[in-house]
Write a structure and sequence with these properties.
Blueprint: H1 2-17, E1 33-39, H2 55-70, E2 76-80, H3 90-99, E3 104-111, E4 121-124, H4 131-149, E5 153-157, H5 169-176, E6 181-188, H6 201-219, E7 256-264, E8 270-278, E9 284-290, E10 301-302, E11 316-322, E12 327-337, E13 342-344, E14 348-352, H7 365-376, H8 383-402, H9 405-414, H10 436-473
Parallel strand pairs: 1-2, 1-3, 3-6, 4-5
Antiparallel strand pairs: 4-6, 7-8, 8-11, 9-10, 9-12, 12-13, 12-14
Helix pairs in contact: 2-6, 3-5, 4-6, 7-8
Length: 474
């Protein structure tokens, strides 16, 4: 934040102290513009070989297409540091440029990153004024060309060595001869995201033509036949003494990176995360996530709102993942700043149950069959409720079976309380008629009054007979 504030303050001061200064072209040239195109590498110095053809072959194709395109413009002389597979030191290249009184050196390259993870187009410019401002005005236009082709603008950058001079040799050697030089890293040959721009020879030529267009705009050129006119093309605002891009080395890792689970759908496994990150002196550029606690990471995605000429970062971003079920997933993120310095978040562990939870009650086959049936059972009850109901049904069934000798034998033979009884099997319907035992009791109760009455009648008859016989005797 301090640097951002300092830049803004410096800019306000500059704008007020140089009222006539506008978005002007800083660099001027003599009667004829002299351009040196430097195809990077050559000879035994092959450049990157991560994706063939070799970088030294690609840079030559692009440089020749760039030179041919520049021939369309008036009042320009174009040189190549090499037009074949020749080995040249960086000093020799700069000396050649000085010998032809070059106004600018454009060094052509293709990129590859150490961890094969980042992508996009990148340009290195001089770190020292006043060449820095010239490099910056060109870089701004060139980056627009690359973005127009659809590439990610990875950055306009500077880098110093431990002596405090430019780290990259071609820039350092050219600076020593007061010639502005830039390194055009068109795209990353090891990045799948950049492949659409570097597959065919025609792609390398397209880069060369785009490079030439940026040069024509930067110097305000007009084509030979007058159909292209960049004479009044606007350039980025920067004062010749200003250093706008802080060098690699002054940048530290992002200060913070936090990860939070904000939503989780247990059915689908879809999870939404929020990433909050902060870098007070650099722009955040990418973020990537890990599902194994940081062992491996996804290809990085661009941090929202990133643009190489911005001064402010977005504070957060969110992303969605579908997490695997039946285990814990150790989610982690890392954020990258413009110089690829990374900071990791803490791990957020997300646990998702197996898709079909199985409630284990018993190990027997019969129980497993019953559980399967219970799971297939339609209804809104939960598993425990279902099992309780199954058990109730079995108890009823067992009671009935205990009265049926044949059924009881079958049960004891299986040793299980029930065999293959499905929960859908309803208990035996209770008959409208009384059961046999009750019928027997009913029959007994009907017999009692009859027997009683018969006994009473017999007693009455005996008593009457006795009275009659004894009465006659008296
Ligand atoms: Zn290279």
């Amino acid at each position: 934040m301090k640097k951002t504030a300092a830049i803004i303050l410096a800019f306000i001061v500059l704008m007020t102290s140089f009222p006539s200064y506008a978005a002007g072209r800083i660099q001027t040239y003599g009667d004829e513009l002299v351009i040196v195109i430097d195809p990077g590498h050559g000879g035994s110095n092959e450049g990157t070989d991560v994706y063939l053809p070799l970088e030294k072959e690609r840079t030559l194709v692009t440089a020749k297409a760039m030179a041919a395109e520049l021939e369309r413009y008036a009042n320009i002389k174009v040189y190549l540091t090499r037009d074949g597979d020749k080995e040249l030191s960086l000093k020799e290249r700069a000396e050649f440029a000085a010998s032809v009184q070059a106004d600018f050196i454009f060094s052509i390259h293709y990129n590859a990153s150490e961890e094969h993870d980042v992508f996009g187009t990148e340009i290195w410019i001089p770190a020292r004024a006043p060449l820095h401002a010239m490099g910056y005005q060109f870089a701004d236009l060139w980056m627009q060309e690359m973005q127009g082709m659809g590439l990610h603008p990875r950055g306009i950058k500077t880098r110093l060595n431990d002596k405090g001079t430019d780290y990259y040799g071609i820039i350092r050697e050219a600076t020593a001869k007061a010639i502005p030089a830039v390194i055009l890293e068109h795209c990353h040959l090891d990045a799948p995201q950049d492949r659409p721009w570097c597959d065919e020879e025609e792609d390398m030529k397209a880069f060369g033509r785009a490079d030439a267009t940026a040069v024509a705009k930067y110097f305000g050129l007009m084509s030979n036949n007058g159909d292209i006119d960049y004479v009044s093309w606007p350039l980025a605002e920067i004062h010749p003494d200003e250093v706008w891009v802080f060098p690699l080395g002054e940048s530290s890792e992002p200060e913070s990176c936090e990860l939070e689970l904000v939503a989780l759908d247990e059915e689908s496994g879809e999870a939404e995360f929020e990433v909050m990150a902060e870098d007070s002196d650099e722009l955040l550029q990418y973020f990537a996530y890990s599902l194994d606690g940081g062992e491996s990471y996804s290809p990085p995605e661009v941090w929202p709102g990133y643009a190489p000429n911005h001064t402010e970062n977005a504070e957060s971003t969110s992303f969605k993942l579908t997490l695997p079920k039946g285990r814990d997933t150790e989610v982690k993120v890392r954020v990258y700043n413009r110089y690829d310095r990374k900071t990791e978040s803490e791990t957020v562990s997300v646990s998702l149950n197996a898709p079909e939870p199985v409630v284990s009650v018993s190990e027997s086959d019969a129980d497993r069959a019953r559980q399967d049936a219970a799971l297939a059972w339609e209804g809104t009850h939960d598993i425990q409720e279902r099992l309780d109901r199954i058990r109730e049904g079995e108890e009823e069934k067992a009671e009935e079976e205990s009265k049926d000798p044949a059924a009881s034998e079958e049960v004891s033979a299986d040793s299980a309380p029930s065999s293959g009884v499905t929960p859908t099997a309803a208990p035996s319907p209770v008959s409208e008629a009384a059961p046999p035992q009750q019928q027997e009791e009913a029959d007994k109760s009907m017999l009692m009054p009859v027997l009683g009455a018969s006994l009473l009648l017999l007693c009455a008859m005996l008593f009457t007979g006795y009275v009659l016989t004894h009465g006659k005797r008296r």
